């Protein structure tokens, strides 16, 4: 693939994408083509995962190459403001305003993302429903448990009904039960938008993603379907985290 054409809503295409921080090459000619709604970007710390997300979110531009994601092309600078209105982001360690109630916080995020004023209340309520926080709508964010805050983080990411939902290590710091709950809530929205999940936790990728990009030291180690990654079709319960971990460790040895 030498050139990226414009993508459909649930497509991610990359052609020779490279990016440097000074003399350090964070991404080295990443080329990939995905057509599912859920893509996991796997790799150890420093692999280039967060850098790739910054590019996909239009927060930075590639030094070389181009990409198309959720209907937007990286060369289309005139269309970037419209693209950002339909972008949902949950960054690592995101800051939530503790003095707001959950509903107030979601109204604020909806306003930032230019949701029409007549739709803001419905958008906030819908996002609360998806993550089962309706009964906490009028509770101060600072009073929420860690797991509930992560759920609110997902709610703010989907409050504008995004075409692209970007999640950077969203379950780090949660206990196993909270992580399972979070993945269940994420499964409710992944058919409505393109989800790109960056993580080093293989059970998150196994539970959520249909396709995989493995990065290490800024280079591609694997691109393809989860089935091809683990080497067999999914079982009745889907792909096991053990299968995904085994496949991952044949390509990458995470840094200690």
Description:
Helix 4 (120-130) packs across helix 5 (146-158) and helix 7 packs across helix 9. Helices cover 34% and strands 24% of the residues. The strands form 2 sheets. A 6-stranded mixed sheet has the order 6-7-8-3-9-10, sandwiched between helices. Strands 2-1-4-5 form a 4-stranded antiparallel sheet, with helices on one face. The chain is globular. The two termini are 35 Å apart. By secondary structure, the protein is of the alpha/beta class.
Major β-sheet profile: 6 strands, mixed
Alpha-carbon Rg, integer: 18 Å
> What's the helical proportion of residues?
25-40%
Give the strand tally.
10
Structural class: alpha/beta
The geometry reads as globular
β content, as a range? 15-25%
The spatial strand order of the largest sheet comes to 6-7-8-3-9-10
Average predicted local confidence, pLDDT: 91
How many helices? The count is 9
- Give me the strand/helix succession: EEEHEEHEHHHEHEHEEHH
N- and C-termini, Cα separation: 35 Å
**Unreliable residue runs:** none
């Amino acid at each position: 693939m030498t050139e990226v054409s414009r993508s459909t809503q649930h497509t991610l295409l990359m052609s020779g994408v490279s990016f440097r921080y000074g003399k350090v090459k964070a991404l080295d000619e990443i080329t990939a083509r995905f057509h599912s709604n859920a893509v996991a970007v796997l790799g150890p710390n420093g692999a280039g995962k967060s850098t790739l997300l910054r590019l996909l979110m239009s927060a930075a531009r590639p030094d070389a190459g181009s990409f198309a994601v959720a209907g937007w092309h990286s060369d289309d600078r005139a269309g970037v403001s419209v693209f950002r209105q339909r972008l949902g982001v949950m960054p690592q360690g995101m800051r939530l305003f503790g003095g707001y109630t959950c509903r107030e916080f979601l109204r604020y995020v909806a306003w930032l993302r230019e949701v029409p004023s007549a739709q803001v209340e419905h958008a906030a309520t819908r996002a609360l429903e998806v993550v089962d926080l309706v009964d906490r709508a009028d509770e101060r964010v600072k009073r929420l448990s860690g797991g509930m805050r992560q759920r609110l983080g997902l709610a703010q990411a989907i409050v504008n009904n995004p075409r692209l939902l970007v999640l950077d290590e969203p379950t780090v710091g949660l206990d196993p039960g909270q992580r399972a709950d979070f993945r269940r809530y994420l499964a409710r929205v992944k058919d409505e938008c393109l989800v790109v999940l960056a993580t080093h936790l293989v059970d998150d990728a196994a539970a959520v993603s249909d396709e995989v990009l493995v990065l290490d030291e800024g280079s591609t180690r694997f691109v393809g379907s989860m089935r091809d990654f683990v080497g067999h079709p999914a079982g009745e319960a889907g792909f096991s985290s053990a299968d995904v971990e085994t496949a991952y460790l044949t390509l990458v040895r995470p840094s200690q």
